[in-house]
Amino acid sequence: MSKKIFSEKEINELSKNKYVKKVSQKGITYTNEFKLHFIAEYEMGKTPRQIFQDAGFDIQVIGIKRIECASDRWRKSYKEKGVLGLDDKRALNSGRTLNRELTLEEILAKKDAEIEYLKAELELVKKLEINERQVRNHRLKPIKVFGLIKNIISKFNLIGMVKYLCQIADVSTSGYYKFLKSTELRKYREANDLKTKQIILKAFNHRGYKKGSRSIKMTLENEFGIKMNRKKIQRIMRKYNIVCPIRRKKYKYKVTKEHKVCKNYLQREFKQNVPGKVMLTDISYLQYGNAKTAYLSTILDASTNEILSFKVRENMKLDLPGVKIVATEKKIVYRAIEEETSTPKVEEYNTLVVPRGGEYMLELSDGTKVWLNSDSELRFPVTFVGDRRSVEIEGEAYFEVAKDEGKPFHVLANGADIKVLGTSFNVMTYRGRTITTLVEGEVCLTYKDESVLMVPDRQAEVITETGKILMREVDARNFTLWKDGVFYFENAALETIAERLSQWYDVNIIFNDEALKQLRYSVEMKRYNNIQDLLTKIEKTQKVKFLIQGKSIYIHKWLETYDLLE
User: Fold this and answer.
1) Neighbours of 226 (CB within 10 A)
2) Domain residues of the chain, as ranges?
3) How far apart are CA 554 and CA 512, in angstroms?
4) Nearest Cα to 433, choosing from 456, 457, 416, 410?
5) What CATH architecture applies to the domain 485-565?
6) Which of 68, 373, 434, 449 is in Cβ range 3.0-4.6 Å of 396 for a Cys bridge?
């Protein structure tokens, strides 16, 4: 401590400074505001002499020794106890130890200050912990932490807490002040990003469909004459959550005849040196016009290599004994040929398999229409023979049966026999369950020794364990909306919803808690929408949380921390 004695004139000059609380001949009592100001300025790189000079103090009057002592004392106290260490502990600011006990008002004021600092510290820690789960390596970007510190200081109106909060968050104090200085620059960059966003959205929605970063780049260059780096486009899309939906793979479906092994007469010896003995055929796909396809079929003599015949058509037609097959993109139609000599004596069966994520419509030879849901299989005859029409189903299908009183239509599903004459109904056999829902007409459901007659808006479920049939009244439309491209669930278990989503979107859904399977929801949504739309609707109930990783979806219990994030 300096031994300098202040004169009356110097005391008067020092007393006029707003940062001086009291001054005597031997000492100066500074305000807490100046101490906090000193610490903040020192952290920014200023020297103690410069700080005192900028605060309006005459260095010659105070003396450099007194400034250095005060600087060392304040910095040491702040390092050990934080802001509380800067409080003046001297009685009546005289430098003497307080011999009396603190009054109730003084104790309360001190505790209130401590509480405010602790609140600020706790809020920062909570926010860091919440955000930490959202980033890899359990660490936030420094700029995110700086923003949290700034908000907390503003919220609680704290002074001189920068270094303390930066130490808690494990970030640089100087970096925080650089963050404050760059506010205007960030605003400028944000304004530019918003302008870029509008340009990207213009290309994103061009011609009525959404695009990825590559298509956006080409659209900007070709349609609008704007050159933009693809990495910049990707950054803006990530920043503003501009997402291009991933289009599902278009599956190719085909109807195959059940395997029949024939004797290998040729043994790959196609050259028999006898014209007309071995014939080869093939179908070539010819693309023309606006995404149109023609089909070229040829017949080649293997011995002479001559083209004996060829045919070009706009669709594929195959004439079999008693039936004509016409195949289109998502539909196969069987047409019976009305000739007595063409009717086969024995039924020949085909099997149509629809994979996960697909759907298909099939028209049988009698005119019956069948819609097959994803992950389903239908076994049916090329043409129906005799006085009975019969097919087998695994999975889910919707039937519109052509009426023929002389030939009742039978659907076999997991041991159950559904007999109809002419009606519309839905059959589901997923997970070993057999559920029949009648839309119109009448059906007779038989399982083992029990039979029931169904009327519209009734649903029958076969209980395999007991051999009984459970009947209930439903709105049949709700169970057939999938045919029209709609997901509909009414008070359905989350396990059932997850099963349907897994089949349609071809994903694996894993429950983190078995109890979550029993949660019930009512949801309606287009099947062709992004799966994220449906998951977001369910998440709004704040009961479950979905985590998507590749082709797997994990279902977790909703935590209180998610509420804070919302």
Assistant:
1) 14
2) 8-86, 104-181, 184-239, 315-479, 485-565
3) 7
4) 416
5) 3-Layer(bab) Sandwich (3.55)
6) 373
Cα torsion at 197, 202, 206, 209 (round to 10°)? 40
What's the token pair of residue 535? 């998951």
pLDDT band of residue 21 (cuts 50, 70, 90) is confident
> Which DSSP state fits 514?
G
Q: What separation, in Å, do the N-terminal and C-terminal C-alpha atoms of the chain show? A: 55
CB of 393 within 8 A of CB of 413?
yes
Q: Which positions ≥6 away from 367 have C-beta within 8 Å?
A: 402
Of 71-80, 371-380, 490-499, 523-532, the poorest mean pLDDT is in: 523-532
Choice between 362 and 192, residue whose per-residue pLDDT is larger: 192
Give CA 204 to chain center in angstroms.
Answer: 20
Strands lying side by side in the sheet with 292-301:
279-288, 292-301, 307-313
CA quadruple 164, 169, 170, 172: dihedral sign: negative
| Cβ proximity of 371 and 479 under 8 Å | no
- For the chain, the residue count is 566
Highest CATH level, class, for 315-479: mainly beta
Q: Which residues pair with 409 in a beta bridge?
A: 389, 420
Distances (CA, A) of 411 to 103, 393, 397, 478: 91, 7, 10, 21
Domains 315-479 and 485-565 share a fold: no
Q: Is the pTM of this model over 0.85?
A: no
DSSP H/E element including 219: helix 213-223
